[in-house]
Amino acid sequence: MDGKEIAQKRAAELREILEDYSYRYYVLDNPAVSDYEYDILYRELVEIEEKYPELITPDSPTQRVGGAVSEGFEKFTHTLPLQSLDNVFSEEEVKQFCIKVKDSFPDQDVSFVVEKKIDGLSVSLTYENGLLVTGATRGDGFVGENVTTNVKTIKSIPLRLKHPVKKLVVRGEIYMPRNSFMKLNEEQDLKGLQTFANPRNAAAGSLRQLDPKIAAQRHLDIFVFNLQEISEEAPQLKTHGESLEYLKAQGFRISSMYHVCNTPEEVWQAVLQIGMGREALEYDIDGAVIKTNLFTQREMLGSTSKFPRWATAYKYPPEKKFTRLKEIEINVGRTGVLTPLALLDPVFLAGSTISKATLHNMDYIEDRDIRIGDMVQIMKAGDVIPAVVSVDREAREKERKILPRTTFQMPKQCPECGSAVVREEGEAAYRCENPDCPAKIYKGLVHFTSKDAMNIEGLGPAVLRVLCDRGLITKISDIYRLKDHRETLVEIERMGEKSVDNLLNSIENTKKNELYRLIFGLGIRQIGATASKELAKYFKSMDAIMNADIETLETLNDFGRITAESVYEFFQNDKSRALVAELKELGLNLVHEEDSTPPSNDSIYGKIFVLTGTLPSLKRAEAQKMIEDFGGKCSSSVSAKTDFVLAGEEAGSKLEKARKLGIKIINEADFLELLK
User: Fold this and answer.
1) DSSP 8-state symbol, 462
2) Correct CATH for 608-675 of 3.40.50.10190, 3.30.930.10, 3.30.160.340, 3.30.750.200
3) CATH code linked to domain 1-64
4) What pLDDT was estimated at residue 382?
5) Which 3 state secondary structure label does DSSP give 470?
């Protein structure tokens, strides 16, 4: 295989791994790896896609800005985007960031503010005439969830400003203190309920409670860390440091340990100082944030489509400890991938007792020569299931006579169903290819019912497990036949008539869901939510998708050969076609309904735009919204499918690539002309 083919296989593998990790974290509230390890894998995928932009798929994690909006709350549109931060991992990268900022202003003084990166849930708070009117989650950065009622239960959030102004919007991080987290999990355990994996997930779950009384009982807290908007009559603040003190004076809780630094070395020393005190804190932090201090310089630096150029986040390496590897068990995932899991002698690490750790795949085990009985080093960023990172070979040698080690072998049969396990050439993963494997079926059902798919309330993993064990659900279509088993459901412990009726109503309501949700819920490999929307929008019906050939599928936006083949092969399978037929008979919506208001601008509708550089008057988010409002699409990379590159000042490699490919390049004036 040539370099591109190797990269293509590795990119596909990384996407599947990262999708599974994201699924565990966001859907199951059961993370499998640390943020640090996720970020390393994410960066590897970014580097592949930067080298081979044609390999980028619409469902790649790199195309995702943030999480989806929950349908349990009213949507809230942020007036200014709540961007995420790019990450750095070394002293060299921290100093390079500082030097790059300083080089942008050779004739000006440049300073930085270094703060703790609180590990929680980002929110915006809006005040009008001094009163709190809205509290909203970040969501995807543009649209979040209105959680005002729950926000008001947090005592450290002022309901009234000490010095009222017409309008003030601030950004903060809501978190759960460690002692509150431990108390909550103890209560969950006593009630026989699932415990939370980490304080961050607990904070997010608490803030999204429909009953504010529950949120109030969870003892959430907040640090406010950024001034988003302020009305003109307010004091004119020039620096981030000044804004923090202003916010403190207004009654907000800010992080007390922030550092104003003038040199890259001072910045690095501040990062180290924050890191040394992290374990003594009453809350979790996962890094340090470095921000350009002067607001005018921030404005000039601007942002990329995802990150501000004036700030970055240093991620601390996770804590590590040694413990004994007792055994290795196999977990079978939704796509049939067999993932080895280390069973450990319990060890206290970063705030919790650890007894399991991921081993990723067989290549990972072989590369590190991990054996059963070894003393292994595990790492954890303080909040998730850790990973085994190395082996104490010195201990192995000392103990070889009294405690021999056992080399692990991947099973030839699936531990769940006994079917043959296969490993395709060029892939690290071993798979069970039995479509009737109970583990695959169960996890496929969990995916189908999840928020981003069919969003069936009341049919979470725990309830699904009970129903599967009782034989009430063996496949997706059985979900829509549960109404025939109402009496049986009522008799199940902790269900009850009201819960059962609510569940059945929820199931019935999902029959009207948009087509893309059903497509995504089917769990087609390589097809995420974005690709599902593209399929629904282009083909208009499930029947048309099922009958599409590979060549047609490949013409869709951001669809490559692998993605097209995956869709084609899925619907050529007799069982897949039979399932769709069942769902149709059961009354599920299988057609795409167009928006009632047709696009009003033919120059933009259906066109793909790439934005690069800083525009004279428009912010990146504003231009992107204009494009999408008129039916266009924004992409992060230039390819042969790109229609326009909207270029501003300091446009980089994207502009050069557009020129080489002959893509039409426009400036802001040209763009505004297109809108007319």
Assistant:
1) H
2) 3.40.50.10190
3) 1.10.287.610
4) 43
5) coil
Q: Give the pLDDT confidence of 398-434 residue by residue, as tens digits.
A: 998 888 899 999 999 999 999 999 987 777 789 998 8
Is 385 a residue whose pLDDT tops 80? no
CATH number 2.40.50.140 is the correct assignment for the domain at 319-432: yes
Res 36: pLDDT: 74
Active site residue 657: no
Pairing of strands 75-77, 221-230: unpaired
Handedness of CA 86, 91, 95, 96 (dihedral sign): negative
Contact 103, 330 (CB under 8 A): no
Residue owning tokens 């009213």:
74
Q: How far is residue 174's CA from residue 647's CA, in Å, rounded to a whole number?
A: 37
Rounded-to-integer distance, Cα 541 and Cα 66, Å: 28
d(CA 548, CA 583): 19
Q: Among residues 117, 443, 607, 657, which one is catalytic?
A: 117
420 strand-pairing partners: 413
3-state secondary structure 503-559: HHHHHHHHHHCCHHHHHHHCCCCCCCHHHHHHHHHHHCEHHHHHCCCHHHHHCCCCC
d(CA 260, CA 243): 13
Domain borders along the chain are 1-64, 75-315, 319-432, 438-512, 515-585, 608-675
- Top-level class of domain 75-315: alpha beta
- Domain with residues 438-512, CATH architecture: Orthogonal Bundle (1.10)
pLDDT tens digits along 199-250: 888 898 889 888 888 888 888 999 999 999 999 998 899 999 999 999 998 9
User: How many helical (H) and strand (E) elements, i.e. helices and strands, does the chain have?
Assistant: 26, 24
For domain 515-585, give its CATH number from 1.20.120.450, 1.10.530.10, 1.10.443.10, 1.10.150.20. Answer: 1.10.150.20
Task: Indicate the average pLDDT of the chain.
Answer: 87
- Buried (b) or exposed (e) across 572-591, using 16+ Cβ within 10 A? eeeebeeebebbeeeebbbe
Question: What's the distance, Cα to Cα, between the start and end of the chain in Å?
Answer: 50
Exposure of 314 by Cβ count < 10 A (0-12 exposed, 13-18 middle, 19+ buried)? Answer: buried
Query: SS3 string of 602-665?
Result: CCCCCCEEEEECECCCCCHHHHHHHHHHCCCEEECCCCCCCCEEEECECCCHHHHHHHHHCCEE
| Pairing between β-strand 121-128 and β-strand 285-292 as defined by DSSP bridges | unpaired
Answer yes or no: same fold for 1-64 and 515-585.
Answer: no
b/e per residue, 98-117, with b = 16+ CB within 10 A?
A: beebbebeeeeebbbbbbbb
pTM for this model (two decimals): 0.53
pLDDT tens-digit map of 490-505: 988 878 888 899 999 9
Q: How far is Cα of residue 212 from the mean position of the Cα atoms in its chain?
A: 26
CA angle 303, 611, 229 (to 5 degrees): 35
Residue 601 binned pLDDT confidence (cut-offs 50, 70, 90) = low
- Residue 562 confidence class, pLDDT cut points 50, 70, 90: confident
